[in-house]
Design the sequence.
């Protein structure tokens, strides 16, 4: 909208007589009405909140999604309407000391007024919002309930569809010949060295190394594919998350030091245990730390922070890597999305799947060139037990 004419008039507002002032007010009211109409026709929820979280504007869709009344605008804090959001944001407070506020992206499960899945984007703005001058956020809420349900259905279909089962079977069968290839390539390599063929031998060795490289690549493709199409039911045990983090870090120790990266696990108090599948949770940590390593240059570091409240345990992985642009952030969880030459693009999808299977959530926020923060939210054991009890109660009925 072109506002330069309006700006000019506003600049000379003291010179206006009452007639012109009236016209101006009418014009402003018309423009406001039009903008409101536009915002109210949008399906996405749009909110503006000030730095205290008080909702200063909400379009119709936003009101419907979070059960906000028009009379709540200017009074109610967004955190109060969406407590889950408050929880996942609190986890970030730890690093909100950084000057520039990051763009946040979260997937939230709302239970009021309806059960919905909502994707939330929070973009900081520095124009005057509310009663002070400290800026605020524009919050965009997209209803992804259908998308999510159909995604889950799709996975469900995929899981049972014969073609995927066939592919998984074939992939699994490929494991044995690949192993055998590896063994024989090693035998040839050893023989070759014994024969001492000089430069010719070197050339052959090089070819063998290429073969082995390709065999390894095939093996990795198959492993990742199988993990993605054959998710197992988690086998629940009482887990100490920090102990698992340490275990995973030990596995990755060599790669970390080769890449000249360091890791700090910052623990201030003991963490409550959770119920989870040991192997799957380790896979989550492994994939996240691996991505962080791959995003960083030598000298980079990873911080791992922990926190808990009455219901959840939070783990944050903060890296000083390349970061992800706002438009790519939403693609990170898609199958086969990768920006790496040797990437499979399944790691984060698997992480998300495992977190969901555990009744948990994953949040990601990132700034290009600065780094990425991954937040994991695990329900605490008592909460999870309650959930399990209530769902098994339901099936019995
Ligand atoms: P892959 O690692 O095989 O590419 P993933 O599913 O693990 O697949 O990740 C998908 C993409 O998300 C990566 O290619 C990368 O572009 C981006 N990504 C994930 N984690 C990070 C991170 N910590 N820093 C920067 N980019 C990341
Ligand atoms: Mg990865």
Sequence:
């Amino acid at each position: 909208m072109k506002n330069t004419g309006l700006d000019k008039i506003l600049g000379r507002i003291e010179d206006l007589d009452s007639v012109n002032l009236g016209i101006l007010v009418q014009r402003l009211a018309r423009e406001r009405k039009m903008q409101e109409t536009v915002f109210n026709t949008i399906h996405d929820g749009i909110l503006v909140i000030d730095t205290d979280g008080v909702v200063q504007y909400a379009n119709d869709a936003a009101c419907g999604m979070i059960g906000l009344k028009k009379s709540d605008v200017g009074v109610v804090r967004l955190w109060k309407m969406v407590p889950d959001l408050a929880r996942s944001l609190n986890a970030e407070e730890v690093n909100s000391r950084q000057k520039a506020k990051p763009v946040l992206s979260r997937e939230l499960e709302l239970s009021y007024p309806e059960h919905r899945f909502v994707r939330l984007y929070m973009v900081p703005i520095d124009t005057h919002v509310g009663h002070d001058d400290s800026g605020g956020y524009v919050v965009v809420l997209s209803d992804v309930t259908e998308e999510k349900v159909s995604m889950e259905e799709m996975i469900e279909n995929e899981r049972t569809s014969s073609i995927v089962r066939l592919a998984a079977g074939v992939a699994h069968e490929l494991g044995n010949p690949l192993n055998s290839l590896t063994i024989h390539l090693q035998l040839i390599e050893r023989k070759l060295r014994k024969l001492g063929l000089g430069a010719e031998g070197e050339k052959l060795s090089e070819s063998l190394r290429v073969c082995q490289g390709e065999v390894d690549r095939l093996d990795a493709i198959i492993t990742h594919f199988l993990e993605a199409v054959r998710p197992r039911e988690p086998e629940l045990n009482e887990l100490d998350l920090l102990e698992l983090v340490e275990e995973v870090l030990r596995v990755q120790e060599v790669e970390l030091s080769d890449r000249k990266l360091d890791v700090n696990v910052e623990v201030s108090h003991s963490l409550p245990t959770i119920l989870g599948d040991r192997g799957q949770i380790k896979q989550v940590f492994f994939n996240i730390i691996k991505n962080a390593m791959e995003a960083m240059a030598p000298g980079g570091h990873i911080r791992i922070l922990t926190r808990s409240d009455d219901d959840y345990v939070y783990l944050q992985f903060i890296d000083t890597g390349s970061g992800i642009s706002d438009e790519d952030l939403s693609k990170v969880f898609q199958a086969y999305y990768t920006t790496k030459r040797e990437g499979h693009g399944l790691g984060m999808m698997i992480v998300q799947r495992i977190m969901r299977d555990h009744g948990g959530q994953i949040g990601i926020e990132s700034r290009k060139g600065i780094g990425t923060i991954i937040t994991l939210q695990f329900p605490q054991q008592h909460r999870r037990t309650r959930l399990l009890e209530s769902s098994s109660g339901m099936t019995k009925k």
User: Anything to note?
Assistant: The domain at 149-229 is CATH 1.10.287 (Helix Hairpins).
